[in-house]
Amino acid sequence: MVKVAILGSGNIGSSLISSAISRGYEVIGTGRTDVTLRRVLELGAKATSNNQEAISTSDLILISVKPQHFPDLVRGTTRNIWRDKVVVSVMAGVRLETLKRIMEGASVFRAMPNINATVKMSTTALTGDGRGKELVETFFKGLGSTYWINEDFMDVWTALIGSGPAFVSEIIDSLVLGAVASGMPRELAYSAVLDMLEGTARNLRSHKGHPAEVRDNVITPAGTTIRGLKVMEEKGVKAALIETVESASKRASELGRVIDGRIKEDTERW
Ligand SMILES: NC(=O)C1=CN([C@@H]2O[C@H](COP(=O)(O)OP(=O)(O)OC[C@H]3O[C@@H](n4cnc5c(N)ncnc54)[C@H](OP(=O)(O)O)[C@@H]3O)[C@@H](O)[C@H]2O)C=CC1
Ligand SMILES: O=C(O)[C@@H]1CCC=N1
Predict the structure, then answer these.
(1) Ligand 2 contacts CB of residue 162 (under 6 A)
(2) DSSP secondary structure code for residue 235 in this structure
(3) Is the pLDDT reported for residue 270 higher than 90?
(4) ipTM > 0.95 for the complex
(5) Which pairing describes strands 60-63 and 122-128: parallel, antiparallel, or unpaired?
(6) Spatial distance between the Cα atoms of 145 and 162, rounded to a whole number of angstroms
(7) Rounded to a whole number, what is the distance in angstroms from the first to the last CA of the chain?
C-alpha cells in the first residue's frame, strides 16, 4: 500500500486526497487551520498540521500549498526529511532546480493538473525524471489524462491548462449572459451552452484539422454567425485571449523566480 502525503489540503489538494482515497492509497493531508484539517478528515484521510510527520510517514509526497507559502513550509521541516522520498510539486512556477536545492536525496517531479480533477478529468502535465516515475504517472492518471512535457513548457501549461478552467468558465458565463440579455432563461441557456461546449470539443477532436475549418463550416453567408464573429473581431476577443494566456504564463515564471530567490536566501543560512 503506497502511503501518500498531501502537504496543503485546499482546492487542488482536496481533489488529490479524494482521488487517492478512492483508489485505496493510504493518505495523510496537512493544513494549518482546523477548517482545513476537518475537511481532510471528512474526505477520509488522516489529518495533521505537522508537515514533518506527514513526510516522514509517507512514500509519495505531494506539495499543494501556494507557492508563496512554500518557503514557510520548508522552514518547518528538517533538512534530511526528504531523503529517499518521491516528491511531486503541483505549485505554479516553482522549478525543479529550486525544489532539488532543498530536497537532498529525493526524487523530484512537478505536476500541473487542473481543477477538473474533481470529476477525474484533469489534464495533467508531468515533468522530471528518476526513481518513482511510474508511481507518479499512475497517481496522476487516476485524475484524468497525463502528458510528460519538457519543464520549459510548464509555465505556459500552467496558464493554458492549469488556469484554463477559470478562463473557459468566464467565457461560458459571458455567453450565457448574452442569451439572458436576449430573453432566454438563465438555467436553459447554461445547460444548453455546456452541451454545446462538449459537442464542440468532440467535433473538433474528430475533425483533426484547424478549428478555423469547423468555424467556417458554421458560417452561412449573410447569416447569424458572421454577424457575431464580426463583433468578436471588433472587440478584440482573440487578441484578449492570446494576451490572457501570455500574461498568466509570465506570472508563473515570475512566481518561480521570486520563490527561488527566497529559497536561495534560506538555504544559504543552512
Ligand atoms: N486551484 C487550482 O485549480 C490549481 C492549483 N495549483 C497549485 O496548487 C497549489 C494550491 O492551490 P489551491 O489549492 O488553489 O490553494 P488553496 O489556498 O485552496 O490551498 C492551499 C492549502 O495549503 C494549506 N497550507 C498553507 N500553508 C501550509 C503549510 N505551511 N502547511 C500545510 N498546509 C498549508 C492551506 O490550508 P490552511 O490555510 O489551513 O493552512 C490551504 O488549504 C498552488 O501552488 C497552485 O499553484 C495547480 C493546479 C491547479
Ligand atoms: O491561479 C493559480 O496560480 C493556480 C495555478 C493554476 C491554477 N491555479
Answers:
(1) yes
(2) T
(3) no
(4) yes
(5) unpaired
(6) 13
(7) 35
pLDDT at 1: 85
Q: Give me the domains of the chain, ranges plus CATH numbers.
A: 3-150 (3.40.50.720), 164-247 (1.10.3730.10)
Counting ligands in written order, which one lies closest to the CA of residue 163?
2
* Residue written as grid cell 475549418: 213
What is each CA distance from 91 to 51, 114, 153, 157, 210, in whole angstroms? Answer: 16, 11, 14, 12, 32
Residue from 100, 106, 110 nearest 140 by CA: 110
Binding site as annotated, residues: 51
Residues in the chain: 270
Output the pLDDT for position 69.
98
Average pLDDT of the chain, as a whole number: 97
SS3 for 244? Answer: helix
Cell numbers given for 253: 515564471
- Does residue 116 register a pLDDT over 90? yes
Nearest residue to 123 via CA among 155, 94, 162: 162
Q: What's residue 27's pLDDT?
A: 98
62 forms beta bridges with 6, 88
Coil vs helix vs strand at 117: helix
Ligand 1 mean position, distance from CA 10 (Å):
5
